[in-house]
Write a structure and sequence with these properties.
The complex is a heterodimer of chains A (about 190) and B (about 160).
Chain A: E1 7-12, E2 15-17, E3 20-23, E4 29-33, E5 36-42, H1 44-65, H2 71-84, E6 92-99, E7 105-110, E8 116-119, H3 129-139, H4 146-162, E9 171-176, E10 181-186
Antiparallel strand pairs in A: 1-9, 2-3, 4-5, 5-6, 6-7, 7-8, 9-10
Chain B: H1 2-23, H2 29-45, E1 56-62, E2 65-71, E3 77-80, H3 89-99, H4 106-119, E4 133-135, E5 141-143, H5 146-156
Antiparallel strand pairs in B: 1-2, 2-3, 4-5
Helix pairs in contact in B: 1-2, 3-4, 4-5
Classes of the chains: A alpha+beta (about 190), B alpha+beta (about 160).
Organism (chain A): Ceratopteris richardii (Triangle waterfern)
Pfam families (chain A): Proteasome
Subcellular location (chain A): Nucleus
C-alpha cells in the first residue's frame, strides 16, 4: 500500500499444505535492498527459489553498476525472469514495493507469468487476494502518514485472512520511509 | 579495420538491446563498454582467432551524465573527458589538451571537434568527408547531416 513518501508491505505467516498447517512463522516478504521489498505468495518451493534467484541478480547488478536497482527496473527484471518460464511457470504471485530516489513509492503486482499490474494505491496477491481487494478498496485513502498507513494495512490484512481458511496465523508488516523501516508482527486469530 | 568494427558494433547493439529487454531501461554507458571490452579481450586469449584491429571511442549519456570511453584491442578501457584515436592522434590530443574546458556547451564542443580534425586534415574539409555525432541532455543520439556540418564549418571559418 502506498502512503505519503512511504509504503507498507505485509503478509500472513501461515505455511500449509492444503488443510495441514506446517509452519506458523513463515516469512514471505523479502528485502532486496533498503528501499525495495518483494512479497512472494504461492508454491513455497518456487517462493524460495525465486527469492534466491532475485537476490543473486540484484547482488550481481549492485557489484557491476555500483548502485541499487530502481524499483521499476527490478519489476521489469522479475517480469522477464517469470516469463522465461512461460511454458512451465513458477507458481508464484509477486508483490513488489519500493521507494524511488526521490522518495516516491512504487508498487506493482504480477501474475505467475510476469504480467505487471501497476497501481497508485495498493496491490494484493495470494489465496485471499479477492478479500484483500475488497478490504483495501474500502479502507484505503491516499497520502497517509506511516503510522496511519500501518493501521490501515494491518486491519485490511487481518480482516481478509480471517475470511480465508488457507491464510492466517498472524502477520508481519513492514512500513518503509526514506529514513527508516519499521517492522511489526501482528497477532490475529491463530487459526 | 572497417569489417572488425562492424562486428563490434553488431555485438554492442545486441548487448544493449538484451539489457533493455530485461530491465526496460537503457544500458548505462559503462556497462556496455565493459561488455564490449570483454568480447575484445576474449579474442586475445582464445585459440584460432586474432585480436580486433580497432580502437573504439564510446560516447553516451546516462544517469551519471555524459561519458566518453576508449576501448583498445587488448580489451582495456579508459574514461576520458576528451580523446582522439587513429591517424594524427598525438597532435590531436595535444590540441584537445589546450582547447578542452569542463564547462563547454554542445556547440563549443562541436567547434572544438571540427578544429581538432582540421589540424591533421589533408585536402579540403567539408560536410561530405567528415562525420559528426552528438548526444545531449535529451539522450537522443544524432548523426549530423552534411548540410548541418557545412553550417558548423562556416561558423568555424
Amino acid at each position: 500500500m502506498v502512503g505519503k513518501n512511504c509504503f507498507a508491505i505485509a503478509c500472513d505467516r501461515r505455511l500449509g499444505v492444503q488443510l495441514q498447517t506446517v509452519a506458523t512463522d513463515f516469512q514471505r516478504v523479502f528485502k532486496i535492498h533498503d528501499k525495495l521489498y518483494i512479497g512472494l505468495s504461492g508454491l513455497i518451493t518456487d517462493v524460495q527459489t525465486l527469492h534466491q534467484r532475485l537476490q543473486f541478480r540484484h547482488k550481481l547488478y549492485h557489484l557491476r553498476e555500483e548502485r541499487n536497482m530502481k524499483p521499476a527496473t527490478f519489476a521489469s527484471l522479475v517480469s522477464s525472469i517469470l516469463y522465461e518460464k512461460r511454458f512451465g511457470p513458477y507458481l508464484c504471485q509477486p508483490v513488489i514495493a519500493g521507494l524511488d530516489e526521490d522518495a516516491k513509492p512504487f508498487i506493482c503486482a504480477m501474475d505467475s507469468l510476469g504480467a505487471k499490474e501497476l497501481a497508485k494505491d495498493f496491490v494484493v496477491g495470494g489465496t485471499a487476494s479477492e478479500s484483500l481487494y475488497g478490504a483495501c478498496e474500502s479502507m484505503y485513502k491516499p497520502d497517509m502518514e506511516p503510522e496511519e498507513l500501518f493501521e490501515v494495512i494491518a486491519q485490511a490484512l487481518l480482516s481478509s485472512v480471517d475470511r480465508d481458511c488457507l491464510s492466517g496465523w498472524g502477520g508481519i508488516v513492514y512500513v518503509v520511509s526514506p529514513d527508516q523501516v519499521i517492522v511489526r508482527t501482528l497477532k490475529g486469530r491463530m487459526d | 579495420m572497417g569489417p572488425d568494427s562492424r562486428v563490434l558494433v553488431r555485438k554492442s547493439r545486441k548487448q544493449a538491446q538484451q539489457y533493455f529487454r530485461v530491465y526496460k531501461e537503457n544500458i548505462p554507458v559503462l556497462q556496455l563498454v565493459r561488455e564490449t571490452a570483454a568480447v575484445m579481450q576474449e579474442f586475445t586469449q582464445s585459440g584460432g582467432v586474432r585480436p580486433f584491429g580497432v580502437s573504439l571511442l564510446v560516447a553516451g549519456y546516462d544517469d551519471n551524465g555524459p561519458q566518453l570511453y576508449q576501448v583498445d584491442p587488448s580489451g582495456s578501457y579508459f574514461s576520458w573527458k576528451a580523446s582522439a584515436i587513429g591517424k594524427n592522434v598525438s597532435n590531436a590530443k595535444t590540441f584537445l589538451e589546450k582547447r578542452y574546458t569542463d564547462d563547454m556547451e554542445l556547440e563549443d564542443a562541436v567547434h572544438t571537434a571540427i578544429l581538432t580534425l582540421k589540424e591533421g586534415f589533408e585536402g579540403q574539409i567539408s560536410g561530405k568527408n567528415i562525420e559528426i555525432g552528438v548526444i545531449g541532455t535529451d539522450r537522443i543520439f544524432r548523426v549530423l547531416t552534411p548540410a548541418e556540418i557545412d553550417d558548423y564549418l562556416a561558423e568555424v571559418e
